Amino acid sequence: MDEVGRGAWAGPVVVGVVVMTAACGRLPSGTADSKLLTPRAREELEDDLVGWCAAWGIGEATCTEIDEHGLSRALHLAAHRALDALPARPDALIVDGPFDFVGAAADPPRGPAVPGGPPVVVPKIGADRTAGTVAAASILAKLSRDAQMRSHADRLPGYGFERNKGYGTRDHAAGIAACGLSAQHRRTWSFALPAPEAPEAP
């Protein structure tokens, strides 16, 4: 499992989950952390990844939910929505990063009953670069979120969402200065430009 959109100024946070079984075979060639791939490389991998894995799901929490509940709770909501999209809960999850955002928040959201109960969650820093299933989840989540931000760009011109995908960039900051905040902006967020070495990029 992996998330995208954590550090964005606008749009949802999206969680992808990919399930692998012994029958899946070799990971499609070129699979890597989504941040290391070009948009075209991610798009070219989509069909191969969907055909390779045993199951996959996407969940999201909106900018409004992020503002209302905070990022940690929003990630938890998105994670459970991704799990609810699966035909069955996996036995265990490798989650990218140091924190368990799947089981950490109290009162998980209600959803369809899924046999098997909650999975064992293993947080692992750098898992999107070392675990193939996590890399695959990051790619599918990134593709889903990027497509959504491009659709917002058509309705909300002036912010450069088609380029920056809602992340903090100079053109995005200029758009906010000129147009104010849109319905897709996280109103509790700080809109300071990130340092050049910031790990998450559009």
Describe this structure in words.
This protein has 202 residues and is α+β, with helices and mostly antiparallel strands. It has a single domain, classed as Nucleotidyltransferase, domain 5. The chain has seven helices and five strands. The protein has a three-stranded antiparallel β-sheet with strand order 1-2-3. A two-stranded parallel sheet has the order 4-5. A hairpin with an 8-residue loop joins strand 1 and strand 2. Helix 1 packs across helix 5 and helix 2 packs across helix 3. The chain is globular. About 5% of the residues have low confidence.
What is the CATH class name? Answer: Alpha Beta
Backbone CA Rg: 17 Å
Distance between the termini: 19 Å
Low-confidence stretches: 106-115
CATH topology label:
Nucleotidyltransferase, domain 5
Estimate the mean pLDDT confidence.
Answer: 89
Biggest sheet, in brief?
3 strands, antiparallel
CATH superfamily: Ribonuclease H-like superfamily/Ribonuclease H
Number of beta strands: 5
Helix content: 25-40%
Task: Give the spatial strand order of the biggest sheet.
Answer: 1-2-3
- One letter per element, helices H and strands E, the order comes to EEHEHHEEHHHH
Beta-sheet strand percentage? 5-15%
Number of alpha- plus pi-helical segments: 7
